[in-house]
Amino acid sequence: MVVEPSRKIIHVDMDAFFASVEQRDNPALRGQPVAVGHAGARGVVAAASYEAREYGVKSALPSVTAQRRCPNLIFVPPRFEVYQRVSRQIHAVFSRYTTLIQPLSLDEAYLDVTYNKVGLPTAWLTAKAIRADIFRETGLTASAGISYNKFLAKIASDHRKPNGQFAVTPDMGSAWVETLPVARFHGVGPVTAAKMKRLGIETGADLRAQSLDFLRRHFGSSAEWYYGIARARDTRSVNPNRVRKSSGSETTFDRDLTDESEIETGVLRMADDVWNWCERRQAFGRTVTVKIKYADFQQITRSRSQPSVVTNHDQLRQAAIDLLRSVLPAAKGIRLVGVTVSNFAEATAAEVEQLPIFEEAAAA
Question: Whole-model pTM above 0.85?
Answer without folding.
Answer: no
